[in-house]
């Protein structure tokens, strides 16, 4: 019955926290979401999700109606409410360093700890360098009035933007890093409805739980850079990385997911996580074990410059003064997130080289405009392609895949297209007289 459910708080209502709070409330828990950003809290209170995520606004409306979900800026209120407190604040890359910035995690733990006057569990979900939880445990014990009664656990989160609701409600697995049976039991209570689906669960210690997250993201990044490294070899040999990837994927030990060649990975997670992991490993004297992550990063960065090389080649060696239509700004489709977005990196570099760049994206235009007012933006693919010398597809939104080569041909000055994501049917475009180019394909 509901009486047996632990009461939850979620500290940090960004991408991860807002999704977690809303999903847990939808499962029947009483949830308080906290953020120090009063603006974010005001928006959530009025039923508005402050970022683009399919399905989340509808779920927020439903859970607000149920009365099980509240938002606050008060640590005192959050501490009084929660039996289990989830820490969901961001851990961005430090400016000028590869290390992870733990300012927000420390501030959240400090802010909460001051008001913890009874037995409760604090659960870290943020992505952190291994060893962080040991330090936070000490901090909690020292700062919380309830002292040893407050325990720390780690529960890494694997949700993908664009699939956040589904990934949260039906995760591939749950990982519980705990220091006691008591903590494990509290986590079981806090995830009961998800465990009841038969979700595989790994119960382990805290450092392992911290590591699982960065190990998973590093593997995914490595897989993407692996196929992009093969694309480089293909370019030098006249082979076709598209067929190569397809053939590899039929081996289900390899699998086709995260084996899409192209412009490479971006976003707020993969790039900064591999750098922070390499950095942390160096700090603790095992840098050699993951030095390959430096190479993974380098391969990924080269994708961006190679894409620009391809545009330049198509234009006969010159970007200066050329009209370039950029399709996509978000770091991936179904997202408005432009953090470390390969698309905008390419657009900005070409702009810096003197090209007349116009950008369109179905969801990320507002964010792009705010971050890079120097670029020009348009209202649709056809709009930015008007009189273009070349069209460059940078984010593989479904609406770009559906563009008819004949329709785009009507508006451009020259039928040239660079497919930065291997998203288009090369034959269909060539049949309409387009010069079609993609990295790693002849
Ligand atoms: C990633 C992980 O996939 C999640 O499991 C994890 O929870 C999350 O980071 C996180 O740490 O919070 P996300 O950043 O939302 O999720 O995006 P992904 O779907 O992983 O895509 C990352 C980047 O890789 C995108 O730029 C995408 O375009 C690129 N990508 C992906 C490729 O270039 N090729 C592929 O085959 C797949």
From TrEMBL:
SMART domains: UDPG_MGDP_dh_C. It catalyses: UDP-alpha-D-glucose + 2 NAD(+) + H2O = UDP-alpha-D-glucuronate + 2 NADH + 3 H(+). One of its GO terms (molecular function) is NAD binding. Gene3D superfamilies: Cytochrome c1, transmembrane anchor, C-terminal, NAD(P)-binding Rossmann-like Domain. GO terms for biological process: polysaccharide biosynthetic process; UDP-glucuronate biosynthetic process. Residues 325-426 form the UDP-glucose/GDP-mannose dehydrogenase C-terminal domain. Its EC number is 1.1.1.22. It is an enzyme of class 1 (oxidoreductase). The active site is at 269 (nucleophile). It holds the Pfam family UDPG_MGDP_dh_C. Pathway: Nucleotide-sugar biosynthesis; UDP-alpha-D-glucuronate biosynthesis; UDP-alpha-D-glucuronate from UDP-alpha-D-glucose: step 1/1. NAD(+) binds at residues 35, 40, 91, 127, 161, 272, 339. Substrate binds at residues 158-161, 213, 258-262, 266, 332. SUPFAM superfamilies: 6-phosphogluconate dehydrogenase C-terminal domain-like (SSF48179), NAD(P)-binding Rossmann-fold domains (SSF51735), UDP-glucose/GDP-mannose dehydrogenase C-terminal domain (SSF52413). Coiled coil: none annotated. Keywords: NAD, Oxidoreductase. InterPro entries: 6-PGluconate_DH-like_C_sf, NAD(P)-bd_dom_sf, UDP-Glc/GDP-Man, UDP-Glc/GDP-Man_DH_C, UDP-Glc/GDP-Man_DH_C_sf, UDP-Glc/GDP-Man_DH_dimer, UDP-Glc/GDP-Man_DH_N, UDPglc_DH_bac. Catalyzes the conversion of UDP-glucose into UDP-glucuronate, one of the precursors of teichuronic acid. Belongs to the UDP-glucose/GDP-mannose dehydrogenase family. This is UDP-glucose 6-dehydrogenase. It comes from Acrocarpospora pleiomorpha.
């Amino acid at each position: 019955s509901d009486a047996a459910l632990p009461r939850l708080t979620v500290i940090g209502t960004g991408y991860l926290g807002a999704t977690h709070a809303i999903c847990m409330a939808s499962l029947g828990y009483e949830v308080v979401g906290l953020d120090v950003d009063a603006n974010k809290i005001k928006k959530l209170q009025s039923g508005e999700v402050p970022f683009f995520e399919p399905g989340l606004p509808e779920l927020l409306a439903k859970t607000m109606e149920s009365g099980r979900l509240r938002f606050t800026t008060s640590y005192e209120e959050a501490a009084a409410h929660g039996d289990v407190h989830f820490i969901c604040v961001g851990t961005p890359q430090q400016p000028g360093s590869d290390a992870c910035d733990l300012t927000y995690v420390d501030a959240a733990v400090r802010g909460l700890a001051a008001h913890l006057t009874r037995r409760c569990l604090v659960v870290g979900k943020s992505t952190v360098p291994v060893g962080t939880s040991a330090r936070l445990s000490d901090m909690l014990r020292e700062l919380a009035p309830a002292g040893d009664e407050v325990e720390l656990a780690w529960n890494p989160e694997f949700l993908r933007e664009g699939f956040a609701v589904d990934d949260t409600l039906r995760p591939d697995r749950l990982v519980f890093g705990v220091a006691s049976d008591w903590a494990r039991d509290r986590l079981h209570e806090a995830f009961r409805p998800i465990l009841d689906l038969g979700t595989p669960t790994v119960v382990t210690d805290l450092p392992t739980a911290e590591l699982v997250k960065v190990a998973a993201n590093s593997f995914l990044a490595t897989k993407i850079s692996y196929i992009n490294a093969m694309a480089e070899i293909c370019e030098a040999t006249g082979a076709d990385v598209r067929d190569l990837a397809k053939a590899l994927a039929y081996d289900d030990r390899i699998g086709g997911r995260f084996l899409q060649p192209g412009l490479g990975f971006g976003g707020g997670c993969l790039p900064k996580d591999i750098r922070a992991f390499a950095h942390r490993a160096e700090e603790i004297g095992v840098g050699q074990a993951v030095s390959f992550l430096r190479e993974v990063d380098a391969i990924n960065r080269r994708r961006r410059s190679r894409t620009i090389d391809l545009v330049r080649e198509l234009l006969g060696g010159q970007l200066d003064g050329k009209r370039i239509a950029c399709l996509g700004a978000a770091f991936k489709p179904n997202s408005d997130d432009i953090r470390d977005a390969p698309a905008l990196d390419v657009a900005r570099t070409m702009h810096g080289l003197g090209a007349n760049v116009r950008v369109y994206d179905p969801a990320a235009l507002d964010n792009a405009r705010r971050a890079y007012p120097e670029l020009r933006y348009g209202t649709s693919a056809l709009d930015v392609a008007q009189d273009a010398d070349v069209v460059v597809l940078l984010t593989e939104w479904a609406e770009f895949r559906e563009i008819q080569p004949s329709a785009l041909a009507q508006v451009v000055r020259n039928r040239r297209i660079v497919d930065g994501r291997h998203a288009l049917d090369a034959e269909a475009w060539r049949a309409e007289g387009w010069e079609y180019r993609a990295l790693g394909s002849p």
